Structure formats: C-alpha cells, structure tokens
Amino acid sequence: xxxxxxxxxxxxxxxxxxxxxxxxxxxxxxxxxxxxxxxxxxxxxxxxxxxxxxxxxxxxxxxxxxxxxxxxxxxxxxxxxxxxxxxxxxxxxxxxxxxxxxxxxxxxxxxxxxxxxxxxxxxxxxxxxxxxxxxxxxxxxxxxxxxxxxxxxxxxxxxxxxxxxxxxxxxxxxxxxxxxxxxxxxxxxxxxxxxxxxxxxxxxxxxxxxxxxxxxxxxxxxxxxxxxxxxxxxxxxxxxxxxxxxxxxxx
Length: 251
What we know:
- Helix 5 (142-166) packs antiparallel against helix 6.
- This protein is mainly alpha-helical.
- The chain is globular, with a radius of gyration of 20 Å.
- It has one domain (30-239): Four Helix Bundle (Hemerythrin (Met), subunit A) (Up-down Bundle).
- The chain has helices spanning 9-19, 46-65, 74-93, 99-130, 142-166, 174-202, 206-212, 216-230.
C-alpha cells in the first residue's frame, strides 16, 4: 500500500526504523526538518549528557579555583574543557540524518573537535613541562596510562575525521572515505569513554588525594550521566546495522 506521498508504507516504516536511536523513537533523537541544529544538543536523552559533562567540568573547575593556582592547575582545566567540547561535538552531530543536516552538523562537529584538540594539546604540553624537572616520574598511575592512550586516540580520531572530509582521495575517493565513516563514529564513542575513565582515574592521583580532594563518587556519577545521555541516541543504521521488525528498541 502506498502512502499519501506515493511512497510504499513498508519503505517508510523501514526508513523510520533505520533512523531510530538505540533507545526511544525516531523523533526522540532525530533532527526534524527545519529545526535549528542547536536543539540537537538538548533533544532525546541529551539533557542527561549535558548535566553530566557540565557537572564534571564544574567539579574540576570548582576544585581548581578554590585552591591556590599553580602552573599544573591549567592541565585539568584544559583537559576537562576539551572533553566538554568533544561531548558537544557528538551531541550536535548525532541527530542529523538528511544530507543538508549532515553537512552542517559535520562542519560544527569538526570545529568543536578542533577546539577540543587544541585544548587537550595545551593540557598535554603543561603536563610534559611539569614532569620535566628531576624527580617527576612519568606513568606512575592508571590516570597517566589512560591519559596517554586518550591523547593518542584523540589525535588519530581528529586526523582521520578531517582527512576523510577534506581529502577523501587519501582513502581512494569519496565513496571509500564514506565507508570508513562508521568506524570513525564508533571509535569516537570509545575514545569518549576512555576520556571519562581518565578523569575518573585522576581522582586517585596524589594531586587530587592530597590537594584538591575531589570526591571519586561525584566524578563517576557525572561520567555515568554523560554515557546515559549519549549512548541511547546512537542510531545503529549509521553503523550499517538495521533493526529487525520484531526487535526491541533496547536490543
């Protein structure tokens, strides 16, 4: 049977199923036609992610600015700012699904990630300068190892993202570059998880335990809120996975 638009209803239902997020319905985390892209930061479960990432930033920034500022203070400030920007870049792009929306979303996503990478790079430079004097050992905590992994992956993520969009010839053309996109998207979520884990691990460092006194549980809860806000909006179709008609939304 055809719909009023002349398109078969089963085709419409299939497309709507593909556009559905992992949890919820299509309208819960899809940008509607004509809707301001800024609203992508708040639709569906995004308020949970926003609450989590801003609480996380407030915990870090509040702890830093209520203690004596030292050179090292800029390291957690810059890194938490970078993670905040990364979260916004994910939230802005997730709900896009039409070519025009995707194009605008990609531009904003790339800009936010560029700013995030610059902020994280500055944070990395601070820790390297701080560790240069004798007696400052590298990699003595889980936070240090996770941080190194996070830095490496975020740079790889940025390089792949920018080259896919600006220089698709490196991948053998536009179509081949598009085929890499789903892996870039998936790895982006993994990198964000590592970033959150790095911040959580930071609460067990000597700097936190002996100076900032940041509560472990507060950072963990804020990180969980970010995950609860971002991950349910993932649309499986963007990874080439389609839901079966009888599959539950949580499947």
